[in-house]
Amino acid sequence: MADDTKNENNNQNDRDDDANKSSSGSGMGRRGFLKAGAIAGAAGAALAGCPRLFNGDEDDVEPRVLELEHDVAPGELDEYYAFLSGGHAGDVRVYGVPSMRQIMRIPVFNRESARGWGHDDESRQLLEEDGGGYTWGDTHHPRVSQTDNDYDGRWLFINDKANGRMARINLKYFETDAIVDIPNQQGTHGACVVLPDTKYIIGVGEFRVPIPNDGRDLDEPENYGSTLAAINPETMNVEWQVRVDCNLDNGDSAKDGSWFFSTSYNSSGGVTEEEMTRDDRDWTVAFNIPAIEEAVEQGEYEEINGVRVVDGTEDSPLNEGNNPVTRYIPTPKNPHGVSVTPDGKYAISSGKLDPTATIIDIAALNEVDDPADAVVGRPQLGMGPLHTAYDGRGHGYTTLFVDSQVVKWDIEAAVEAHPENGDEESPAVIEKIDVHYNPGHLIASESYTAEPAGDWLISLNKLSKDRFLPVGPVFPENDQLIYIGDDEAGMQLVKDTPAYPEPHDATIVHKSKLDPQGVYDPEDLELDAVDMDDLDVQRVDDDRVEIKLVSRRNDFGLDDVTVKEGDTVEITITNIEGTEDILHSLAIPQYDVNVKLAPQETRQVTFTADKPGVYWMYCAYFCSALHLEMRARLLVEPRE
Ligand code: CUK
Ligand code: CUA
């Protein structure tokens, strides 16, 4: 979303610069500015988002920082898993909460050598065939599957905004096991499960294009559209899509699966930034899931690129009766995040270019003639509201991108105060905490379930400015941990965590809801395992050799294998270790072979032996004291 808010970001910088003018030249970090400001003793209040930092007293720079109390000592385990998207790194990161230690990365749309991802035949098939052959992705929204509105630990789904894809991570092994390249969709942005039981994964299409995008209507943006895609979580097939005229953004599901909500900006259908921000009102689009399913069943769809596409535009004939497939709820202005409250009563959209959030009464959507009448609250929260998370105690926590703050507010109080008048901050606002700086998403523990835990909140700040040692022009982001478990004491900043660019959203799951396995169950793998009796070098054709190897401390079963120049070589290899945490790999220099092998894992790799000579096959995972000796020779005989 950094792209979405480039504008505000610039504004923010402008404001900083303005405040900064008297005391520093360009290039001075905020901390330097703080000091200069303290000496100058004046400019303080002018710095948006940091009022409390600016009292001229260096010792008072960070109020309400909670120290050490929540540390996880060496050898102790965290209470929660946090899954963070990796943005255009294309992966997913796993943190422990509250330590914020990064425990693992899961490659998804990226090739990754430490985990051999995109190197063996199967993962190459996923990336190169199923996944469309792109070399990167842009992951934003990691969502864990739910049963009965609670995390069930089966899968994590993640979108690819860059290439219109959705991936599934198997949480038994913390490993990507499916990728679908979604037709009729460019820029799959929001990703969400349809609740309560993960009936579908929804991919929310952001970029408007001609549908089908086959060269028609090239420069006729009025004919562009986008789609909402429903994907079967088991098969990963796209079951249906709904076409709309607008571009969609983020999404979330009603807890009972009745409606799915997506924000939509650029209601004027523009193609330039100026056009995209022209209108003061855009939409939160509500998709009526049962009505869409019925339309599909009745054959009221058009098949485009093999997908059944239902017409969900405002003027669709399917919107004429009393069971419309879509409803368009006016929402100011270029709204961004939308999330449903844990009790399932409201969908809350954040205004982004408007200081308000819009509260939609989900049950009322079925009653009102004018969808605008389903809006039951519009509290003014602060500048640049983007995303809202929940603690299960009736509070919303909303990121304020421009103000560099998180605001905590009372949802029912905002409904009671509706309609609020004028430009005043809403009486529903309870408190604000400074974050550092410019937060995109935030997430609270178990916030997407019916029963959030209400203790931890991570603010995923896009800019880290002066928070870490400088490392050149590419800065880390700053994921800040905030304790929200004590309403009386208020929000408390606990720690800063540098994040490799660039996480967008996250999901925090209690450890009791996951059951990751340290050893593969061979039943779960496609390939038959190789054991010591199967070791083999078999010439199956004039130019094809099939090799079966094992890995164990400290050999590959065979000391050498011989093939001929030009052979296609297929190696199947099983790590026959049964002990957790004993990984091996098969690396073959100059043949670009790199297969990671966890205990009881079987993988296959195929390559052409086109260079005669001696090549040491070695193990790249440090596995024992004799790890360096764990090697064997590949002898490639010249063909005369
Ligand atoms: S988006 Cu980037 S911070 Cu893709 Cu959910 Cu809002
Ligand atoms: Cu096996 Cu190192």
Walkthrough of the structure:
This protein starts with 5 loop residues before the first helix and ends with a strand. It is globular and about 85 Å long. Helix content is 9%, strand content 38%. The protein folds into 2 domains: 80-513, YVTN repeat-like/Quinoprotein amine dehydrogenase (Methylamine Dehydrogenase, Chain H); 522-637, Cupredoxins -  blue copper proteins (Immunoglobulin-like). It has a 6-stranded mixed beta sheet with strand order 8-9-10-11-16-15, with helices on one face. Strands 3-2-1-30 form a 4-stranded antiparallel beta sheet, with no helix packed on it. Mean pLDDT is 90; it is low at 1-61. With 640 residues, the chain is mostly beta strands. Dinuclear copper ion (CUA) is lined by residues 584, 619, 621-623, 627, 630.
The biggest beta sheet is recorded as: 6 strands, mixed
CATH superfamily heading of the largest domain: YVTN repeat-like/Quinoprotein amine dehydrogenase
> What is the CATH first-level class name of the largest domain?
Mainly Beta
Q: What proportion strand?
A: 35-45%
Structural class: mainly beta
The CATH architecture of the largest domain can be named as: 7 Propeller
- Assign an overall shape: globular
**DSSP, total strands:** 39
Distance between the termini: 58 Å
Ligand catalogue: [4Cu:2S] cluster, dinuclear copper ion
What is the number of helical segments per DSSP (H or I, 4+ residues)?
6
Q: Overall mean pLDDT score?
A: 90
Q: Number of domains in the coordinates?
A: 2
Which strand order spans the largest sheet, edge to edge or round the barrel?
8-9-10-11-16-15
* Rg (CA only): 27 Å
Uncertain spans: 1-61
Helical content band: under 10%
CATH fold assignment of the largest domain: Methylamine Dehydrogenase, Chain H
